[in-house]
Specification:
Blueprint lengths: L3 H7 L5 H4 L2 H18 L5 E4 L1 H4 L6 H6 L4 E4 L1 H4 L21 H13 L9 E10 L2 E5 L6 E4 L14 E8 L7 E4 H19 L3 E9 L2 E6 L2 E6 L18 E10 L4 E5 L1 H17 L6 E9 L3 E5 L4 E5 L20 E10 L4 E5 L20 E10 L2 E7 L2 E6 L12 H4 L5 E10 L4 E5 L11 H4 L5 E10 L2 E7 L2 E6 L21 E10 L4 E5 L8 H7 L5 E9 L3 E5 L5 E5 L16 E10 L4 E5 H41 L4 H22 L1
Parallel strand pairs: 5-7, 15-17, 20-22, 25-27
Antiparallel strand pairs: 1-2, 3-4, 3-6, 4-5, 6-7, 8-9, 8-11, 9-10, 11-12, 13-14, 13-16, 14-15, 16-17, 18-19, 18-21, 19-20, 21-22, 23-24, 23-26, 24-25, 26-27, 28-29, 28-31, 29-30, 31-32
Helix pairs in contact: 13-14
Length: 678
């Protein structure tokens, strides 16, 4: 009897029966029947008719001849398996059956030849046929799977026998078919590749398919990823369209497991390639070494140079011996220049470069003809509070101190006097080539005008000057270059008092002055403006004597008092309590009052007035008038009584008692009126 393994192989319906001839099949069946008969073991059989195995149509006679059947042992039939590609008929003339142990053994051995397929996993499949729009795949499972031909667009040269990765969606659908997907298998493989790149820093390939906001979309084996614009290259990229359609290598720098999304970087690959070069370059660096660099970026404080895989910084102060406001004045992007290594830090990977150090210092080649007393030309390159720096050639500067700008003692504001880029001539006062310092002077370009000050500006001489500056205590006036003086605030006007000179004049205006005093040693002039007119206070004393009344207008008021405008433009001061009106309110600005002069000081040119004293005088005068009127009334009454008394005396001769009573009544009435008046 054949062993069990040979029986299973001989009876495999997918391999032997499909390819064997009818005679071979019948012979195998007869052998099985004989072996089973010897063992007296009933076995299930498969009935195969000739016409079931013959593709051609048969006649009735052939059907009669085929009544004899071929009985085949089949453990799968006993187990109820439905894994057949042919129409198997069950014969009615079975000569025997298998035992339960044999059926179980055969079933297990057969099942072991099949793959253990699980859903949601990727397996290998072999293309067995292409039918219409579908591809039939054998995954060594109990049934084949179908996949739409549209999922194989990327492999137009696919042929039968090719191995393909497929994704098992369902072992059996509602129709009992195996459901596979090549598209999902590709996406899953692509995601596995992306995760591996992210975790192990492996390199993947992808094709840029489109441009999006902030970067590019890259197709990595069917899965779309995002490539930020900053991760395209180590240098800034402006034209993203130039990369669309290109196939490039990337590293995955970020993933999102939930939405299966990833961010890739091409820059990371470049940087990793440059890292080794950078290490080699830094290891070979030496101070003073001259290298060629490419200007890759320009900032306000300097420029970054690519030294062939490693960056170096060229500070603005190391670009030129002369002063520059911005590196772009000397350098341009992508410019190749030679630079010298000034310093480097292996740990921090910092390299400091210099450009001006490749040329000799300008002080070392400065012309010997420039010495003290020489006249030099240049432009202003820096302005400070204490002066300005004049560059006579790149890298060689001299300081013009504010004290060397003008012969005048008037303070000079360097930031107002000088302008950047302005050309000037100056005289060399001191020069120190070792310290590389030079002091310059503008005022020494001309003779000191104070040497002949008495000739040009004699005492009590009149001049016209320009207002240069205003301070709380006076006005600074310039008569000519280097000559100026001050008008004290008290010398601006005979009649007006100013809290600040700006109330009288402004900077830049012309003003008439009189030279009051010359201080040649201290280089100062005292000037006056009011002295150009006669002092009116000699006549004011007769116009505004103490006790006189005048109309005045309030022009200013504060907590101390008010300034009032008197006739002839004269101003007077009234203490705060002296501008209280009759209704007990204070006088307002621009209100006109009648005031009384209560003080006049000719020497100090001061007048003090009072509206309250005026009101008191008015009240006093009114009271005096009333008193006078009452006195006159009493006098008239007394005269009338006296007249009446005389008449009574004549008419009542001897009636002294009546007369005495009448006199007492008159005297009593008079006393009462006087008391009331008082």
């Amino acid at each position: 009897m054949l062993d069990e393994k040979d029986e299973i192989e001989d009876l495999n319906p997918e391999e032997e029966l499909v390819s064997s001839s009818l005679d071979e099949t019948a012979e195998a069946a007869e052998n099985l029947i004989e072996e089973d008969a010897e063992e007296d073991t009933p076995a299930p059989v498969i009935v195969v008719r000739k016409n079931d195995l013959d593709e051609e149509e048969t006649t009735e006679e052939e059907e009669e001849e085929d009544e004899d059947v071929i009985l085949l042992e089949d453990p799968l039939l006993a187990a109820g398996s439905a894994h057949y590609d042919f129409n198997w008929g069950i014969g009615k003339k079975a000569s025997g059956v298998y035992t339960d142990d044999q059926i179980k053994n055969y079933t297990e051995q057969y099942a072991s030849t099949l793959n253990a397929v699980l859903e949601n996993e990727i397996v290998k499949g072999r293309v067995t046929s292409i039918q219409g729009g579908d591809v039939v795949l054998d995954i060594n499972y109990k049934s084949d799977g179908l996949i739409s031909l549209s999922e194989f667009r990327d492999t137009p040269d696919m042929k039968i026998g090719d191995a393909v990765d497929v994704y098992v969606e369902q072992q059996e659908d509602s129709r009992g078919q195996l459901v596979l997907s090549r598209r999902k298998a590709k996406l899953l493989r692509a995601w596995e590749s992306i995760v591996d790149s992210y975790e192990n820093s492996t390199v993947i390939k992808g094709t840029v398919i489109s441009k999006t906001k902030g970067g590019l979309i890259v197709d990595c084996s069917g899965l779309e990823t995002f490539l930020p614009g900053s991760q395209i290259d180590i240098k800034p990229i402006i034209d993203y369209d130039a990369y669309v359609g290109k196939t490039m290598e990337f590293k995955v720098v970020k993933i999102n497991e939930q939405i299966k999304n990833a961010v890739v970087s091409h820059k990371a690959l470049i940087e990793s390639d440059l890292a080794e070069q950078r290490e080699a370059i830094i290891a070979s660096l030496e101070k003073g070494q001259v290298l060629e660099g490419l200007v890759k970026n320009i900032t306000d404080f300097g420029a970054f140079l690519d030294l062939g895989g490693v960056d170096g910084l060229l500070y603005i102060t190391d670009i030129s011996w002369g002063r520059i406001n911005h590196p772009s004045e000397v350098l341009t992007l992508n410019q190749k220049i030679n630079v010298v290594v000034l310093d480097f830090d292996e740990n921090k990977k910092r390299i400091s470069l210099g450009l001006k150090q490749l040329q000799p210092h300008p002080w070392e080649v400065l012309s010997a003809g420039i010495s003290e007393g020489s006249i030099v030309k240049g432009k202003i390159v820096n302005i400070e509070d204490y002066g300005a720096f004049l560059e006579i050639q790149p890298g060689v500067e001299g300081l013009i101190h504010v004290s060397e700008v003008s012969w005048s003692n008037q303070p000079i504001n360097a930031r107002e006097y000088f302008k950047l880029g302005q050309d000037h001539e100056a005289k060399v006062v001191t020069i120190d080539r070792e310290e590389r310092k030079m002091s310059l002077s503008i005022k020494q370009m001309s003779e000191d005008p104070w040497n002949i000050i008495e000739e040009r500006f004699a005492l009590n001489s009149r001049h016209i000057g320009e207002v240069k500056n205003l301070t709380p205590y006076g006005v600074f006036v310039e008569m000519e270059e280097g000559i100026g003086g001050m008008i004290h605030i008290s010398d601006l006007s005979w009649t007006k008092r100013f809290s600040h000179p700006s109330e009288f004049t402004k900077v830049g205006e012309k003003i008439d002055v009189l030279v009051l005093e010359i201080d040649k040693d201290n280089r100062k002039l005292s000037l006056g403006h009011k002295q150009l007119e006669e002092n009116p206070w000699d006549t004011f004393e007769t116009v505004f004597p103490v006790g006189s009344y005048h109309e005045a207008t309030v022009i200013r008021r504060d907590d101390r008092g008010a300034i009032l405008q008197l006739p002839y433009g004269l101003e007077a001061f009234a203490p705060i309590k002296h501008i209280r009106k009759e209704d007990n309110t204070m006088a307002e600005v621009e209100e006109t009052l009648t005031v009384k002069v209560i003080e006049f000081n000719r020497d100090e040119k001061r007048i003090m007035v009072s509206h309250q004293r005026y009101l008191e005088d008015i009240r006093r005068e009114a009271e005096e008038e009333v008193r006078k009127e009452k006195q006159e009334e009493r006098n008239r009454t007394r005269k009338a009584v006296q007249k009446q008394q005389a008449t009574i005396e004549k008419s009542t001769l001897g009636d002294l008692e009546i007369f005495s009573q009448l006199k007492d009544a008159i005297d009593s009435n008079t006393d009462t009126e006087e008391d009331a008046a008082e």
